[in-house]
Design goal:
The chain is of the alpha+beta class. The protein has two domains: 78 residues, OB fold (Dihydrolipoamide Acetyltransferase, E2P) (Beta Barrel), CATH 2.40.50; 126 residues, no CATH class. Helix content is 36%, strand content 24%. Helix 1 packs antiparallel against helix 7, helix 2 runs antiparallel to helix 3 and helix 3 packs across helix 5. The longest helix has 19 residues. It binds zinc ion. Zinc ion binds next to strand 7 and helix 4.
Length: 267
Amino acid sequence: MATYDISTDALVIRAVPQGDHDRLLTLLCPDEGRITVIAKGARSLRNKLMSPCRAFVWGNFELHFKGDMAWVRDASVIKSFTSLEKDIELMYLAQYISDVCCELSGQGEPAGELLPLALNTYHALCTDKYDREIVKAAFELRAAAISGYLPELTECIRCEKTEAPAFYLDVMGGGIVCSDCIASAPEIPEAEVPVDAYGTRSIIIPITAGVLAAMRYVVNAPLKRLLSFGITSEVDKKTFCRAAETYILNHLERGFASLRLYHELSE
Ligand SMILES: [Zn+2]
């Protein structure tokens, strides 16, 4: 059986207890993408793997592979975001961010921008400088955009018009639709289709110019400046956040338990 070792930086996006002493980690690595590894003894006090081998740690990992299995030989913390666990609402939000990263990453596929996006998002949530809902929505939209679900936000996806009295987000159509196109082909009202039928229904969300500007900003901005935009009205903020969440869940065609728990606590 082939054995080899690698050394890589990685973000621990999941850490579940295994047996009495170990943890099973899901790592997101720049080059190797998503890797599942066993951290032997990581649940034992005084074990050297205890602090680096937990969720929300960005660290350096020495990994040993044998066949389909991998073990952590050694690890060190580069930056810890474990303060996210101090607040249960924040913890579920961070877990949801990780769950989305898990869903959007692949084994052996370089993580690309998803990794710095996750790190930036954890950092923003730790600093408490930003509105959590805005951080979440910016992550959702950008994660969708970089993972093959980039929404068309410059012109109507049906008539290609760039100017219109109003625009709507056609979630499953993957872009904006102008008010003229909506008027000529009214959609089934959203209330009439089941809410958990992700990816199977037509969802049209009315968006203001302010919401559209924020969405355009988030899909195009340099990652370092992802949160440097403003949404002035509370109504626009709500629409922006709802649009971002609806957009990613419907393109992933699934919901998340972590997100449900976050909503239960935050509402
Ligand atoms: Zn149109």
